[in-house]
Design a protein that fits this description.
By secondary structure, the chain is mostly beta strands. Helix content is 14%, strand content 55%. It has one domain: Calycin beta-barrel core domain (Lipocalin, Beta Barrel), CATH 2.40.128.20. It has 1 helix and 11 strands. A 10-stranded antiparallel beta barrel has the order 1-3-4-5-6-7-8-9-10-11.
């Protein structure tokens, strides 16, 4: 084989490998802005919020969530956390019922979370992004700081 052809083949293989590696390390499908579809969601143990917007951003392996909610009473609240899908605890601000969470990736579309208050588990949640990336479903089972249990299935539309 001629040296020029050999270099071209090696260059091509290296380029294809770099593209494959970049594609494999892509962003989490949850990255983006999501709006709660209250009509498609179900809530027990408390009233449904009037609205909720979740914005997920990613930097490396860290995901930041900013969740803005308007409660049934009209009060606005903002929860924020930056976490990784590694099972370790990460702090949460602005949530009245938990102060940290841990997260694990179950499959490319689904992650599960344990919500904690003072190091003790007080809830579990999972989020699944549809294969077409247009809808996200979040299932939550938790106990509030007042000891009230609630469950919900929240459906979000990508914005």
């Amino acid at each position: 084989m001629r040296p020029l052809h050999a270099r071209a083949i090696v260059g091509f293989v290296a380029t294809v490998a770099a593209i494959a590696i970049a594609f494999a390390a892509g962003s989490d499908p949850v990255v983006g802005t999501w709006q709660l579809n209250v009509a498609k969601s179900t809530f027990s143990g408390g009233p449904a919020p009037k609205s909720q917007t979740r914005t997920y951003t990613q930097s490396g392996s860290s995901i930041t969530l900013v969740m803005k909610t308007v409660g049934a009473d009209g009060k606005e609240s903002t929860m924020k956390t930056t976490y990784q899908l590694d099972g370790k605890d990460y702090p949460v601000t602005g949530a009245p019922d938990y102060d940290s969470l841990s997260a694990k990736q179950l499959n490319p579309q689904t992650a599960s979370f344990t919500l904690k208050r003072a190091g003790k588990a007080v809830g579990r949640t999972s989020r699944t992004v549809s294969h077409d990336g247009k809808q996200m479903t979040s299932k939550i089972s938790a106990t509030s700081a007042k000891g009230e249990k609630s469950e919900s299935v929240m459906v979000f539309d990508r914005q």
